């Protein structure tokens, strides 16, 4: 019996502890002497890899820079940011709990989003109910327009998967029209929502553009040997190889292609192609590889950002969602500085305002940022954006990709 | 004190639930979110332990059912009314549980553990493949207007239900059956329990609860894909919570789930960057510091092993050694007695010295024999343990099955009682063929047995040991009547008034008595005794012989494997002598014992040497 | 041609599975510790190889010389400090199984947490011996081939040690029956400790070798543990050759399904094969019938 009662006591004690530990009253909103910003991000579990390249370092860098400048400029005062951070353990339920905690226990003024489509959608309804602006940057789904209508507080920043696929096919079509490549395509995709939405859109676009899909398969996440698929893809002698895959798979696919001397004229992989790890791993062999994302490396702001990121985080950023994440924070910052810490006003400002960010001037349309890079390519050790071609700084694609070196 | 013991668990469970019920009324949204987590893990861990606690099967398939529930909502949530969705989820969970249970429950120990894990992964892979190739999209969106508080109350109802069901099951025949299975599956079958059905029933109940929990939780996440719905971590957390709390008792998992969920939360909230390290350390400390926390399972877990005899004689069942009483006398003999095989031979030899054998009058009821064995055979590897054995047992008689160690006697009994299937030959009992039937079916035909190495259920009381047989024999009874019958039987074997004593505390001889009472409780026509008289002192031996004689007077037919020659001479009407798997003599006890080939076999001539 | 291709690629992939599982079969089969932190040890070895290669330009195969003894010592220490108290406390094998699951579950979190603190959550990887070599007309990667070679050498070497040496015989005796082993004056705890440490070293070897071609991060240990567990159980607990056979079989079927059926079904086929084997042989390919 003693053990039982001890356990009960412990449980009650723990409960009391959780309820009181962080019940710190938020300061008066009208005259804030600090702005509390909270986030729950994957610090453990399978999403850690993505979160710690694209999202978490950006949050830390931004807070550091804002506070170094004295804080957010509200009215004529500088108000420092105070951060509350949790680990969502790559788990929807934990993410929800953490958001509830940030809102009702920590009473933070703003909440930054978690990483990945799944977690952002999981916390979407709560953030909407509580009226927090939701910068769902790393959410990549074709249903984004519908979600943006459902949750007016939410904004989506990566473009739609279908846009990425359509832009990719547009680039390829141009190349074909120029006679640089033939019509045969081999495509593989990881079998989760990300891979399937991209490949489904690409399949349609390829069909419409008159390409021939000679090999078209999906593979389960966690596959450790890409060679079998690549060999079958290779057997169709494609002009274009497309792999919609996650970072570890992207590296494995590229590695396997190199080993097999699989040299299609266009080699497109991603997500993960835009990671600094890709360049580090493949060095000169990265040259000519296309992937999702990209940036205008000649832009002085991004050059500056690259340096700040290297200095502040200790490594380079990826060239897709990372700068966009930073831009979303800049937009948030400017919105707060324009209208104060009134969340409803900030939501409204974010949706309608125009913001000056490291990726240029940003203006959301229907909750979506549409003007983003879809396709990039490694050229001279930098991952330049090549499509949409109308974007400022878009480079011409280099085709064919040089053959793999040793 | 007894009142606390009696009502403590009920108070603990209802107190915890009552405290949780206050959360939506008093707490913030965050507290409700936390309470949802606590409740969901209480339901999951309790449902898990409903099956795994008593049986000792550690299942990692929790998330398979949880995910099935969640996916059912993802697919049907916007199509059907909510209660119907839950019902469909429960039905799907039930069907999957039955299919899975039928195919897997014959695995044991770690093989079951990893199998169940593989199963969850397989289901996840298949769902993914289906969604990719048929649905053309992997993630699904669940936009249901079911708020956090509604989810809380649904989980609350589920928690109440799981405790009520658990309580009812523990009080029922099914509950007793699972306890017996958990302790010793062989004994369970020899009590007439259809172990597969019992396990399947509870596995299904447990799985349905888990499935419905998944369904109830799903609207919370808005977006569901296989990685979210089938996250294997859920299975591990459930196991860990149930084990820490103690899976052996109904309220145990609650004691694990509540503190662990809160602990996860406290650590996660206060040390987000060192969550893993701290959690791990706390975990290790708990494991070392709270060994009794897992007491419930520690007691049950070795149910996977098969127990035999009092502790000093217990076979650990490890490695490749044949299990006691199953694969032949030679192997088990080495465990049960001192390693020197000579000790037995010598005692047998002295028994064989010519002495005037008493022979009781034998009432050979004419007509067809009760048991007829024809050309029975069984091999283990290359060893022919039973090699073309044939004999008959007349109704109302006692037949001695004798022979040197390793001659195949116990194997013959095992074949008759259905413990192992024969390779060839036929067994006819009471006019019908029973060859190859399962033990529980054979028990229902009217054959009961004791084991060479006593197998009583240590964790159960003497009365419950007997009750298990009464509750699952051919014409079962339950409740007061059964309890009364158990007491009578215990008194008959000399254990009067010891009904509530745990069987594990009995002396060797008393556990033999208990085992006999359990066999008698099955109301058998034929009783198989495997060296029931071995190891008794002279007084006990006389009592034992008198007891067996009285059973015969009651009309029971008995086959006894025995080495005690006095008993054989005084009790047996006929004897069948085996050596190296064959019958070498069959006839009246006195003649058989005098036959030269029998004497030679016992004296260790030829190949009987072991 | 396709057949040779499938066979060779399948064997190479299977060799990796076997390589990553052999240590676990030793730890679980002999020392009776179901080590859930197994994959974290592997990841730790992979990180060590990464640091040695990128930081000190020590090639992984040379790094093995450092990693192996280190892992042996560390695992020996883990066994003596963490697990011996549990072994002493356990009344039965099942009790030890429960305790070791719980304790190593804790260890898993600690090791993973340390990994996160040092390396963060990012992916790591480097290229070493990532060159093609042609065998029987089939192109394979040198680093994967090397890993297969090591798997074979380690399996055969260990098998030889276990069957031909005195200590090996003692290890097998403990695996079969610790109680009986005690009766013939085998120091069961020392032998079990040795087996656990050797298993840990094998596991680390696996980690170093796969780091040559897999991308990894601190969160990935669990995946390795799970795969290893499947291989170990399918092969039969404690049976090195069983682990080798199971690993190769899984690799073969995965490759065959990818080439002949649908790459989307590879893992499903793997699990189906595993479940099928257990249904036919409830104690694995080479498992002993009892228990």
TrEMBL record, chain A:
Secretion signal, residue range per the UniProt entry: 1-25
Pfam families: Peripla_BP_6
Keywords for the protein's UniProt record, in alphabetical order: Amino-acid transport, Signal, Transport
SUPFAM superfamilies: Periplasmic binding protein-like I (SSF53822)
Span of domain Leucine-binding protein: 34-380
Keyword Transcription: no
PANTHER family: ABC TRANSPORTER SUBSTRATE-BINDING PROTEIN, LEUCINE-SPECIFIC-BINDING PROTEIN
Family: Belongs to the leucine-binding protein family.
Name of protein: Amino acid ABC transporter substrate-binding protein
From TrEMBL, chain B:
Region Disordered, annotated ranges: 308-355
Pfam name, any one: ABC_tran
Protein name: Branched-chain amino acid ABC transporter ATP-binding protein/permease
Keyword ATP-binding: yes
Organism lineage string: Bacteria, Pseudomonadati, Pseudomonadota, Alphaproteobacteria, Hyphomicrobiales
Segments crossing the lipid bilayer: 7-26, 32-51, 58-76, 82-102, 109-130, 150-169, 200-218, 238-264, 271-290
SMART domains recorded: AAA
PROSITE patterns assigned to the protein according to its UniProt record, in alphabetical order: ABC_TRANSPORTER_2
Subcellular location(s) of the protein: Cell membrane
Membrane topology: Multi-pass membrane protein
UniProtKB/TrEMBL annotation, chain C:
Subcellular location, record wording: Cell membrane
Main location: membrane
Keywords: Amino-acid transport, Cell membrane, Membrane, Transmembrane, Transmembrane helix, Transport
Stored InterPro entries: ABC_transp_permease (IPR001851), BCAA_transport_permease (IPR052157)
Pfam families documented for this protein: BPD_transp_2
Topology term for the membrane: Multi-pass membrane protein
Annotated TM spans: 6-26, 33-53, 59-79, 100-121, 141-162, 191-216, 228-253, 260-280
Similarity comment: Belongs to the binding-protein-dependent transport system permease family. LivHM subfamily.
PANTHER family xrefs: AMINO ACID ABC TRANSPORTER PERMEASE PROTEIN, BRANCHED-CHAIN AMINO ACID TRANSPORT SYSTEM PERMEASE PROTEIN LIVH
Protein's name according to its UniProt entry: Branched-chain amino acid ABC transporter permease
Species, as recorded: Rhodoplanes tepidamans
């Amino acid at each position: 019996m003693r053990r039982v009662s001890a356990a009960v006591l412990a449980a009650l004690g723990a409960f009391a502890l959780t309820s009181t530990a962080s019940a710190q009253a938020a300061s008066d909103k009208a005259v804030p002497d600090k702005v509390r910003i909270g986030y729950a991000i994957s610090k453990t579990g399978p999403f850690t890899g993505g979160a710690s390249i694209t999202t978490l370092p950006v949050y830390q860098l931004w807070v550091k820079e804002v506070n170094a400048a004295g804080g957010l400029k509200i009215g004529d005062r500088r108000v420092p940011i105070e951060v509350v951070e949790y680990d969502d353990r790559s788990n929807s339920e934990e993410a929800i709990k953490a958001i509830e905690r940030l809102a009702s226990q920590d009473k933070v003024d703003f909440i930054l989003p978690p990483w990945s489509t799944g977690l952002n959608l999981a916390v979407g309804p709560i953030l909407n109910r509580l009226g927090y602006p939701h910068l769902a940057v790393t959410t990549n789904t074709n249903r984004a327009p519908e979600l943006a209508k459902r949750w007016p507080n939410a904004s989506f920043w990566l473009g739609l998967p279908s846009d990425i696929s359509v832009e990719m096919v547009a680039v390829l079509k141009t190349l074909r029209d120029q006679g640089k490549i033939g019509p045969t395509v081999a495509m593989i995709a990881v079998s989760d929502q990300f891979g399937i939405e991209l490949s489904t859109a690409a399949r349609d676009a390829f069909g419409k553009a008159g390409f021939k899909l000679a090999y078209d398969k999906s593979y389960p996440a966690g596959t450790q040997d890409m060679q079998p698929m690549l060999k079958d893809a290779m057997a169709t002698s494609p002009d274009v190889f497309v792999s919609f895959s996650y970072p570890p798979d992207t590296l494995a696919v590229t590695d396997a292609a190199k080993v097999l001397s699989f040299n299609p004229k266009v080699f497109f992989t991603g997500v993960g192609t835009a990671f600094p790890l890709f360049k580090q791993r493949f060095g000169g062999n990265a040259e000519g590889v296309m992937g999702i994302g990209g940036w205008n490396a000649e832009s002085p702001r991004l050059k500056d950002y690259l340096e700040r990121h290297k200095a502040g985080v200790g490594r380079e950023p990826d060239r897709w969602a990372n700068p966009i994440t930073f831009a979303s924070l800049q937009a948030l910052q400017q919105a707060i500085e324009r209208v104060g810490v009134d969340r409803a006003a900030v939501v409204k400002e974010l949706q309608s305002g125009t913001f000056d960010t490291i990726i240029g001037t940003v203006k959301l349309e229907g909750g979506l940022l549409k003007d983003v890079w879809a396709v990039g390519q490694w050229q001279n050790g930098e991952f330049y954006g090549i499509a949409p071609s109308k974007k400022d700084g878009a480079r011409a694609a280099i085709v064919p990709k040089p053959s793999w070196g040793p | 004190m007894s009142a606390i013991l009696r009502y403590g668990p009920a108070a603990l469970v209802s107190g915890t639930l009552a405290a949780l019920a206050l959360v939506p009324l008093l707490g913030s949204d965050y507290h409700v979110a936390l309470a949802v987590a606590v409740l969901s893990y209480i339901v999951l861990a309790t449902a898990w332990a409903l099956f795994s606690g008593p049986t000792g099967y550690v299942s990692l398939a929790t998330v398979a059912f949880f995910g099935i529930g969640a996916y059912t909502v993802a697919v049907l949530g916007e199509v059907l009314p909510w209660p119907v969705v839950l019902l469909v989820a429960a039905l799907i969970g039930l069907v999957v549980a039955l299919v899975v249970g039928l195919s897997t429950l014959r695995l044991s120990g770690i093989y079951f553990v990893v199998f169940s894990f593989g199963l969850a992964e397989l289901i996840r892979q298949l769902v993914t493949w289906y969604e990719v190739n048929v649905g053309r999209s992997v993630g699904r969106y669940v936009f249901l207007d079911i708020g956090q508080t509604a989810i809380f109350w649904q989980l609350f109802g589920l928690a109440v239900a799981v405790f009520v069901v658990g309580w009812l099951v523990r009080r029922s025949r099914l509950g007793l059956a699972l306890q017996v299975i958990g302790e010793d599956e062989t004994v369970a079958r020899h009590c007439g329990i259809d172990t597969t059905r019992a396990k399947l029933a509870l596995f299904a109940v447990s799985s349905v609860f888990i499935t419905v929990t998944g369904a109830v939780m799903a609207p919370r996440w808005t977006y569901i894909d296989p990685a979210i719905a089938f996250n294997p971590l859920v299975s591990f957390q459930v196991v860990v919570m149930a084990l820490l709390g103690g899976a052996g008792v109904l309220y145990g998992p609650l004691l694990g789930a509540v503190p662990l969920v809160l602990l996860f939360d406290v650590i996660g909230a206060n040390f987000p960057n060192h969550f893993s390290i701290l959690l791990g350390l706390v975990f290790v400390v708990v494991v070392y510091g709270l060994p009794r926390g897992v007491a419930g399972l520690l007691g049950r877990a070795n149910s996977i092993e098969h127990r035999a005899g009092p502790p000093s004689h217990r076979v650990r069942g490890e490695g490749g050694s044949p299990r006691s009483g199953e694969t032949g006398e030679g192997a088990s003999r080495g465990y049960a007695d001192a390693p020197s095989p000579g000790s037995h031979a010598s005692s047998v030899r002295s028994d064989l010295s010519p002495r005037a054998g008493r022979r009781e009058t034998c009432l050979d009821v004419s007509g067809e024999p009760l048991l007829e064995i024809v050309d029975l055979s069984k091999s283990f590897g290359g060893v022919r343990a039973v090699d073309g054995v044939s004999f008959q047992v007349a109704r109302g008689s006692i037949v001695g099955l004798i022979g040197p160690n390793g001659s195949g006697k116990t194997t013959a009994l095992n074949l008759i009682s259905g413990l192992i299937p024969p390779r060839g030959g036929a067994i006819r009992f009471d006019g019908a063929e029973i060859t190859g039937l399962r033990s529980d079916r054979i028990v229902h035909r009217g054959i009961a047995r004791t084991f060479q190495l006593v197998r009583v259920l240590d964790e159960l009381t003497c009365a419950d040991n007997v009750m298990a047989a009464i509750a699952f024999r051919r014409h079962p009874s339950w409740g007061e009547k059964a309890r009364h019958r158990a007491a009578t039987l215990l008194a008959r074997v000399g254990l009067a008034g010891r009904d509530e004593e745990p069987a594990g505390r009995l002396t060797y001889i008393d556990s033999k008595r208990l085992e006999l009472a359990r066999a008698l409780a099955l109301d058998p026509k034929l009783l198989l005794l495997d060296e029931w008289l071995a190891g008794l002192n002279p007084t006990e031996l006389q009592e034992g012989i008198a007891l067996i004689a009285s059973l015969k007077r009651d009309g029971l037919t008995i086959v006894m494997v025995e080495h005690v020659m006095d008993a054989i001479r005084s009790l047996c009407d006929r004897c069948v002598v085996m050596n190296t798997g064959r019958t070498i003599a069959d006839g009246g006890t006195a003649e058989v014992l005098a036959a030269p080939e029998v004497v030679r076999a016992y004296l260790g001539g030829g190949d009987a040497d072991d | 041609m396709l057949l040779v291709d499938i066979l060779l690629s399948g064997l190479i992939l299977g060799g990796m599975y076997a390589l990553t599982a052999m240590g676990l079969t030793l730890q679980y089969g002999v020392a009776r510790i179901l080590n859930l932190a197994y994959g974290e040890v592997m990841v730790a070895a992979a990180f060590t190889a990464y640091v040695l290669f990128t930081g000190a330009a020590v090639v992984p195969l040379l790094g093995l010389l450092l990693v192996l003894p280190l892992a042996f010592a560390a695992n020996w220490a883990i066994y003596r400090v963490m697990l011996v108290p549990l072994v002493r406390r356990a009344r039965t094998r099942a009790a030890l199984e429960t305790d070791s699951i719980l304790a190593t579950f804790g260890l898993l979190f600690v090791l993973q947490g340390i990994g996160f603190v040092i390396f963060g959550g990012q992916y790591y990887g480097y290229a070493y011996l990532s060159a093609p070599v042609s065998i029987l007309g089939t192109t394979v990667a040198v680093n994967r081939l090397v890993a297969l070679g090591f798997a074979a050498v380690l399996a055969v070497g260990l098998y030889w040690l276990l069957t031909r040496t005195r200590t090996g015989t003692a290890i097998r005796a403990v695996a079969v029956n610790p109680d009986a082993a005690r009766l013939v004056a085998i120091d069961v705890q020392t032998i079990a400790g040795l087996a656990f440490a050797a298993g840990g070293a094998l596991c680390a070897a696996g980690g170093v070798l796969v780091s040559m071609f897999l991308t990894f991060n601190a969160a990935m240990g669990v995946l390795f543990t799970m795969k290893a567990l499947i291989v170990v159980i399918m092969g039969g607990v404690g049976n090195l050759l069983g682990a080798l056979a199971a690993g190769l079989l899984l690799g073969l079927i995965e490759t065959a399904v990818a080439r002949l059926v649908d790459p989307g079904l590879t893992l499903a086929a793997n699990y189906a094969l595993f479940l099928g084997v257990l249904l036919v042989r409830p104690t694995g390919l080479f498992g002993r019938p009892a228990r």
